[in-house]
From TrEMBL:
Function: Participates in transcription elongation, termination and antitermination.
Keyword line: Transcription, Transcription antitermination, Transcription regulation, Transcription termination
UniProt organism field: Mycoplasmopsis agassizii
Name of the protein in question: Transcription termination/antitermination protein NusG
Any one Gene Ontology cellular component term annotated for this protein: cytosol
Top-level lineage group: Bacteria
PANTHER family listed in its UniProt record: RHO-INTERACTING TRANSCRIPTION TERMINATION FACTOR NUSG (PTHR30265), TRANSCRIPTION TERMINATION_ANTITERMINATION PROTEIN NUSG (PTHR30265:SF2)
Domain NusG-like N-terminal as annotated: residue spans: 7-125
Family: Belongs to the NusG family.
Gene3D superfamilies, A to Z: NusG, N-terminal domain
CDD domains: NGN_Bact_1 (cd09891)
Gene name of this polypeptide: nusG
Amino acid sequence: MSNNSERYAWYTVVVVPNKEEQVIESLKNKINATKMGEFFRDFKIFKEPKISKTELEKKQRGENYVVKYINLYKGYVFINMLMTDDTWYLTRNTEYVTGIVGSHGDGVKPTPISKREFRRLLDSEIKHQKAFEERINQAPFLEGDLVKIIAGPLVNEEQEIYYKVKQVNEKMKYVTIDYESLGRKIVTEISWDHIEKMKK
């Protein structure tokens, strides 16, 4: 006879879109009320982080910023549980639940998703997270960008002059430009806080 740990499996529960969090909260409350915690191991909503252009600009200025997390699979939650008559009944009769994938009626219990498929879903979430981190940690300036000096001793109040970025130092957060003084070009390093990219 197999032990319970071998019988736990992930099931895909279909819910009303945008009610995923409420479904999990309702389920947890029902599980506590019925003392069925031993039958439910975990709950999962796969999400990806999103940041607006405005919030990204705040981050680049060193200000507080907000990241939102969007459901990768809207209308679905994933539950790791022991599928019994009682857990099946409890889950499908939770508010905003419309079904469980793999349930074919006639009293036949739903089929779980495979470990391989669940691993694929996890990998997809990780991939989205890494792509997001690469994006928000990317330097706000690139080689070849035209920038205007907006702070510091090199500000020109009389003319709007743009300089081409020669190099970007992401670690120290400065760019290198050629600045002309007294007819000579001088290589100058300027902090990201002191420049602004030309608006397209």
